[in-house]
Amino acid sequence: MADDDIVLSLRDVTITNTADGAHLVRGVDLTLRRGAVLGIVGESGSGKTLTCRAVLGILPPRFEVSGGEIDLLGEDVAGLSARDWQRLRGTEITAVFQDPASYLNPSIRVGKQIAEVVRVKKRVSRKAAQAEALALLDAVRLRNPARVYDQYPHELSGGMLQRVLIATAVALDPQILIADEATTALDVTVQAEILDLLLELKERTGLSLIVVSHDLAVVAQLCDEVLVMRGGEIVERGRTDDILFDPQHEYTRLLIDEHNRYGLDRFLTLGTVPDEMKELTGVA
Amino acid sequence: MSPDAPLLQVADLDVHYGSRRSRTQALHGASLDVFRGETVGIIGETGSGKSTLARAAVGLISVSGGSVTIGGEVVTGFSDRKWRDFRRRGVVQLVFQDPLRSLDPDNTIGASLAEPLILQGRASRSEIADVIRTHLARVRLDEDVLDRLPGELSGGQRQRVAVARALVTGPELVILDEPVSALDSANRVQVLEILADLRASGVALVFISHDLGSVAGITDRVAVLYQGSVVEVDVTDAIVNRPQHDYTRLLVGSAPTLATGSLDRARRDELRSLVGAP
Fold first, then answer.
1. Do B241 and A217 touch (CB under 8 A)?
2. pLDDT per residue over A108-123, tens digit each?
3. Any CB–CB contact under 8 A between B257 and chain A?
């Protein structure tokens, strides 16, 4: 029985490097519902990025989904041809990564790059595509969309570039957006801006989000549900509050402990927070 | 110099980069006092001017306005020669984020650590060996690193060597520019613990970072640098828990923490418009 509310499901997925037979992701199950935000936490080598790439149909050469099933918007991706993927990627499922500059052409003005995606995929006129690109730059809260439209990637800051990438990612009204370490390289205030933007887009468009990060705190602030990955497996999953306040797996405890030791948490005197700070940080 | 005068006094400092045609101002009247034995954090994001402030304080870049006073001596306007003599005395030392840039890749660790003392020309060979041994222990390194080259050490070990090198002349002030940002968490802890020991030993420290979390644990006071100006200075607890400037509020309210739960986007949006964040 198909559940219309589920936009993505993975069942017992194994990803193998066919060059040496190593199973780098093992037995991964996950379900993403429409309009939900799912977090995946893990360090490099945990398999979180490979899992995302399998979902996007962009596994590196020699890597394959060797077991289990990935169901994307009601279609088993195992049966998808390259042409099917072209129909889905960008249109229905899309992603933003850590290094936005490497996904833009350095010698073309950014507005034109977005307009071109819109023109080709939506089959609209150049003029309509331009207007839409400008509207998208405005929607990602760039201060001066018309100016950014005419700028080259190297003229923009990291935060602005990530906004441009998000604008490109949501240009075709996709149903699923994967943000894989999308804020890792950014300053903390800019990171918060981008995370706020993702939530705002989700609320406005009903987008379903997968947020991937090595930082449990980033994921915790955004997500309803969290998966903790380590060494290719999911070691813990659950509602965000349960994971934070009642972690079961020792690795999850380690992640929380690290944050408590080096994050700002240990210095925020939560018991005595003045009202204004409560309001500011959302502490109850 | 009176005993309660600041050890380091940065007053209304202006720094410009670039040629006359395309000048950008990196510091706008930045001011900060650091007293003897105190540990002060300087927090700032990309482009805030924090590295500029560190470099200007020790004369590595020239300033276009304001003054820097170290140990009662006005150092702004020093000639190159005067700076060389001043640095040789080793009163103030600077440690960079990337120790590969401050350690000569062709010099053994032992030679790098001895160099500042040899330049001073006061200590005998055996005295120098003693000083090096003492400071290696302070940064928790074994003596077998002495014969190695910087490239043969891990990033964490190199940063500890850089700290030891800054200490051999017995400075009164050490300025550290993002000393733990390039390190993984295990090495970060170790360097932070060493800095906490140093703080306890009475040397004044200026700890520059983009990360309030790393700085909060080992500082007496924190200065917040924004767009080239120090917008707020206060004891660390006040900066974290009772920030006064809107930018400081935004900075603290943007830090990902486990305790805060869901973000208050509306409040952050309001602060962003107040500080005019780009």
1. no
2. 999 999 999 999 999 9
3. yes
For residue B59, the distance in angstroms to the closest alpha carbon of chain A comes to: 28
Between residues A267 and B261, the one the model is more confident about: A267
Domain layout of chain A by residue ranges: 3-92+177-281, 98-173
Task: Please report, for residues A42, A217, B49, B172, the alpha-carbon distance to residue B85 in angstroms, rounded to integers and kept in the order given.
Answer: 51, 48, 27, 16
A134 touches A146 (CB < 8 A): yes
**Closest Cα in chain B, distance from residue A212 (Å):** 14
A269 — contact with chain B (CB < 8 Å)?
A: yes
**Which A residues 1-30 touch B at CB under 8 Å?**
none
Both tokens of B171, joined, read: 């400075």
Measure Cα distances from B35 to B11, B172, B272 in Å: 14, 10, 33
* A188: nearest CB among B216, B254, B265: B254
Q: Over the stretch A121-147, which tens digit does the pLDDT of each residue have? A: 999 999 999 999 999 999 998 989 999
pLDDT tens-digit profile of A146-158? Answer: 999 999 999 999 9
Tell me the per-residue pLDDT of A90-99, one tens digit each, with 9 for 90 and over.
Answer: 899 999 999 8
**Which residue matches tokens 């060996």?**
B129
Q: CB contact, 8 Å: B275 with chain A? A: no
Q: Which residue of A has its CA nearest to B276?
A: A143
Helices and strands per DSSP (H, E), number in chain B: 10, 10
Name the band, by pLDDT with cuts 50, 70 and 90, for residue B277: low
pLDDT in tens, B239-255: 999 999 999 999 998 98
Which CATH class name applies to A3-92+177-281? alpha beta
Contact status of B189 with chain A (Cβ, < 8 Å): yes
Set of chain B residues whose Cβ sits within 8 Å of the Cβ of A268: 240-241, 257, 259-260
Question: Which residues make Cβ contacts (< 8 Å) with residue B111, sequence separation at least 6?
Answer: B104
Q: Rounded to 10 degrees, what is the CA torsion of B60, B66, B72, B74?
A: 60
- The interaxial angle of helices B109-120 and B155-167, nearest 10 deg, is 10
Alpha helices in B121-181 (DSSP H): 125-138, 155-167
Tokens 């700070």, located at residue? A277
**Residue B2's pLDDT band (cuts 50, 70, 90):** low
B8-236: CATH class: alpha beta
Question: Rounded CA gap, B76 and B81, in Å?
Answer: 13
CA-nearest of B213, B237, B221, B267 to A278 is B267
Q: Can you state the angle between helices A158-169 and A110-122, rounded to 10 degrees?
A: 10
Query: Could you count the other beta carbons within 10 Å of the beta carbon of residue A62?
Result: 10
The residue type found at A34 is R
